[in-house]
Sequence to fold (800 residues):
Amino acid sequence: MVSLEEKFLKLGVNNAPGQEMKTDINVTNKSMLVDFSHGDVDAFKPIPRSLEKFNEGFYLGGKQAYTEYKGKKTIRDDISEKISRFTNTQIESDKNLIITSGTQGALFLAMGSTISKNDKVAIMEPDYFANRKIAEFFDADIFSIQLDYFGVETGAGINLNQLEESFKKGVKLFLLSNPNNPTGIMYSSIEIKNIAKLAQQYNVTIIIDQLYARQVFDKREYIHLCAQREIDPENIISIMGPSKTESLSGFRLGVAFGSSKIIQRMEKLQAIVSLRASGYNQTVLDLWFSEPEEWLKERIKKHQLIRDDLVSKFKLYNDIFDVRATEAGSYLFPKITKFNTTMLNEFIEKLRTQENIIVTPGTEFGKQFKNSFRINFSQDHQSAVDAVGRLIELAKEYSK
Amino acid sequence: MVSLEEKFLKLGVNNAPGQEMKTDINVTNKSMLVDFSHGDVDAFKPIPRSLEKFNEGFYLGGKQAYTEYKGKKTIRDDISEKISRFTNTQIESDKNLIITSGTQGALFLAMGSTISKNDKVAIMEPDYFANRKIAEFFDADIFSIQLDYFGVETGAGINLNQLEESFKKGVKLFLLSNPNNPTGIMYSSIEIKNIAKLAQQYNVTIIIDQLYARQVFDKREYIHLCAQREIDPENIISIMGPSKTESLSGFRLGVAFGSSKIIQRMEKLQAIVSLRASGYNQTVLDLWFSEPEEWLKERIKKHQLIRDDLVSKFKLYNDIFDVRATEAGSYLFPKITKFNTTMLNEFIEKLRTQENIIVTPGTEFGKQFKNSFRINFSQDHQSAVDAVGRLIELAKEYSK
Fold:
């Protein structure tokens, strides 16, 4: 049995995105910091009127401060309707949806409600680093499923044989993000259907993180797992929130929707984890999915243009970098093919100290990604382009 | 082994304070609802300028939205200094303090960082209901320690023999609230010293919830466990927050301070539970312990006056009620001596439907408290007095 001591030794935060400020460093380059570890909400500001909405919530007083643990009913009603429309499913606000403290909160509650010690969990690699950490916290047994994102041209490249093998071995929960974090690649319609079929066949619960499902590029269609007829809706929890595309991360708001049984457990768990998402903050959700008409389109377009510029820059040096263009969301996950497996950490440190640029090491997303790093390009366009220019120069030096 | 199914069946929320609105009921009495399950932040409003502070935080933009997981450094520095002064201890902001999503968040993280399956935990009875629920969620073995709050005139009446027995049997964590929730009674200086000595002797970690430590009546002195020389500070986590006396519950802010080892674990755990307390909200902590000079005094005085009126009312009917006057905080925990053990639930339901009054059943604080109920009297003074008048009338009817 893993002792609590060992468990917390493994549970690191120092390389996690947003924690880099903890390291005392002496930055020699005086260019402005470009922090690719998360989006810049000063470059892409929160939904218009967010602050006013919060103020309205505050003035509602006690009834807004003390909502039900799963969130205020009128707000749940409104979101349930909007998300039903977005996903083309039927979400009943009283039993299929909970408001949480960010999507991180939703993920923790969903996992805490579905797994315990020695339960078998399938996790994609690469995928959001917290998936694995939460599974380890609950002492689950992890089955890694590989994503061959460089090996396919359409779809994410999920190894479905490996997935089925893990299901055969007794996996009860399968976790994935779509678009995939950190690659920004979307699962194809066929992949989603196959995942749905397998989960149904082996009675596996799926938790799917759809955080970036609204920021899709190149007029692609987003395929909702929860809308697939092949799978019982009671076997799925989907997670969304306004922290990324909508830049509301400072409010810590998220939702989970789907299986009534799991939502009910999540409410019970939230009651002991944090009671509820901050009451006044919940009010801001009124604006979500109700943004000014052109605002969202414009935002997606701007991100697509940044992606285009960064991807072209990397592709100019395809002797050094492998990069697959983001299909949705704000992540790029370049691989430096010229590096041996020990060079990346030093490179990332030099980037930080010499160039004032922060990126997230690939190893946060799976220990085999020793040559990759993640960039969140939701940044000021020119700053991002300049920073990637400097990053490439440094990589060239290192690759000599 | 307890299955996840059984675990979540036990983990109820329907009787938890603040959840009563979930029950569809037909209230016949048209008096205004008096909800004694939690404080009324419309009667006692948040610290002046709270909303302005939040707005300042929002305008700080990205650097306030994405703080370190344990909270923004400048805010931690400020609070650490204030709490060091309040408790007469040395709290270093970089290692001894974390900002959490409410004190509920602090409690969950502290327990998740100190116990796992089959660890032995001592819990007071009565005490805050979530203590037991969190311990059960982590599959801990619970030792109940009795509080004979009616049997003593000074102090809380903790059974120290029982506590030492539990420590001898291998308890590694002891949880308590001071002032005690739900009775509003404070542990005496001698009790605190004895607890500290025993914990030191048997190397037991203590988590102490001091949520109401600033709202002390009758010029009593609050005794800080963390300031006792008898115990190694590394063995204590103290929890405080501005949700009660200061009425900031709608912002979901709390802090835990003490043991550097446990604080470090709590940060790691918070990173996967909810990332951080909402960034903008953290700004509001600047006001905490810096309230306008007379504001806090006035607030405490007003609560003491409500307590006086309610306690006198109950004491007029000492053939029906046993009540011990609150020493700190806003809770009263009257016992209806005339009821047999099956009458309370019906009484509480009648109170709700006939009188539009909500109280919390004693059984939430320990299953033996079948004749007691908790009142949070942080309410409009006259409404509270009227409601208790109606409550007494109903109890008289039932006691015939």
